[in-house]
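It is worth pausing here to work through a concrete case rather than discussing structure prediction in the abstract. The textbook approach is simple: state the sequence, then state the predicted structure, then interpret. We follow exactly that order.
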Amino acid sequence: MGKRKSREQVHGIFYPRSVAVVGTNRGRGTVPFDIFYNILKDGFQGTVYPVSPREKSVAGVKAYKYVIDIDDDLDMAVLVFPSTVAHLAMEQIGKKGIKSAIIISAGFREIGEAGMKREQEVKAIADEYGVSFIGPNCLGVINTDPECSFNASFARQMPAQGNIAFLSQSGALCTAVLDYALAKNIGFSKFVSFGNKADISEIDLLYYLKDDPKTRVILLYLEEVTEGKALMDVVQEILSERGKPVLILKSGRTTEGATAAASHTGSLAGSDEVCNAAFRQAGIIRCETIEDMFNYAISMAYQPIPEGKRVAIVTNAGGPGVLATDRAVHEGLTLARFSEKTADILKKSLPHTANLKNPVDLIGDAKKDRYSAAVSSILGDDGVDGALVILTPQSMTDIRSIAEELCSIGRRFPKPLYTSFMGEADVSEGVEILQRHHIPHYSLPEDMCQAFSQACLFAELRDRDPGQPTLYDDVDMDRADQIFATVREEGGKKLSMDQSFRLLDAYRIPLLPYGLAGSEAEAAALAGEIGFPIVLKVVSEDVIHKSDAGGVLLGLDSAEKVRRGYQGILESVRSSVAGARVEAVLVQKMAGDGEEVIIGIKQDPSFGSVVLVGIGGIYVEIFRDFVVRVAPFSRGEARAMVQSLKLFPLLSGVRGREPRDIESLLTCIERVGQLARQRPEIAELDINPLLVRSQGRGAVVADARVVLENLERKER
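Step two, the predicted structure:
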């Protein structure tokens, strides 16, 4: 992407004082008319001008044939002409001196090569005149701030004012979201369909919303991540500087027809695994569905962020209380223990048949007074971080008054209060009251618990210290440069095993002693120098999985066994892999005891260099116990990677097992991260296995494979 947009350039999109709708008409129910009419009818605080070559007026407002015919100065143009003439309209917009635009029209990049050329032409004209624009191929832009009240979209109606911003790559999704939000009384601060993002991107919009005083929570729907590192950077800024949650719903979780990867890392770290890891690393909360996104959003927009995970559940029905308890524990929440003061209040206020412990069961005939006493006392308890309130509609339940009382309680306490009025028709009036007063409501207690858990997750992401990546200064850069220069001269795409080992050695990643043999005599001599026991491994570009082809022999403890093993490997490989070319046989010191770990590198098209850590050995793709991070990352992040593995108890020592040298493992992960960042020529790398020995004895590389992608030197 090009240069980032300034705050002033994006501000012009949301706060114009005068707008021309270029290409409108008088056809009600058409996009050109509806765009103009929405600006006109929804309280725009500036002046709007219709531009229509064929009409004298639109909706009772004088029309102009061309935008340059308007005598007044203009801040913005909303372009709705067909894509085939959009470049002509943009030329006039530029000549008029307009600096902001929204291109609603479709028929650009999304239709193929011809549309791409049109889009590039419009972009070039806009750049020439300094016009910043949203689109093309979008629904438009809405700003509910009463100072502007700008609805430059063809949505059916203007949403209510709120503190949630919504950005979407899909215009069609926007219309559904607006209707969904209307039904649930959810308001927005800004609402943007950015379409093809030919100019202003989601990154520019996020930087703007970071400092937007009207926005507390930011929602983003993406179909593709084109600037992964930039997305991570801006979200980290939003969290560290403003503490605003960023929730993303990204489609395209599956990748059909992906090409086969050349390494374990390449096959494991698919685009969605990388996306998940990158989002979490940046502090983004990823949502599975639109409903999940808004369930989480209203909790964070309407209520205080929880200071902890201790929840109190209040219900008038035992069954839902048990369901909520189960889900709360499943989501990582804990049931709060009440103080003696709270317990006394509950005992005095509730009938003897009520359950006074968490979850608190008010019994089916509970009215406003019981809910008030229970919820107020619980939220006043220092041992409670938030309240989850359930109501089931029974014949004696005064739903309206209970809802009103909960709204009143919510205003009095600086702790989150979530509700679940179960049912549909009977509870609808109460639900409407809760939503109108910004008390989060969920149809099911399980969704309520999940939303509270996600709010707790946000607090952790917001408050964590990501730390600084370690940059090791003992790396032999000249030696690494020479390895890549040699491969570049040879026109290869892979490093040989020896080159791979020498690259790792240049980055001070510890290796087992080794040598390459071209004959059984050389193998025996090398084994004597290295010291028994010995491992033999075939070196061949044609053999990817050496063990499956009989290309690995372990524990050879004499020169004679090494000689026989050398011949045996050649015979096994040639019978298993027809036409296999054997370059040499690796003679390597037997590592001995150690947990097998894989560390890998992959170049992701969206996020760049990615590092994978997981259980290693020949079963790596069967167990699929791995985590990924985008490089660079801190030692703390490397530690979090290792601690999240199912393998971790084996590394830390469990059931009498000797603990492994985790600190040495972390150093290896950091050094691989530095290698990934400094050598983008590496498409895929596997260190498999890295043997992590007992505590204090370090970790060593037993095998490695490096695949190259781009041999042109890149700036480090």
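Step three, interpretation. The chain is about 40% helix and 20% strand. The two ends are 19 Å apart (CA to CA).
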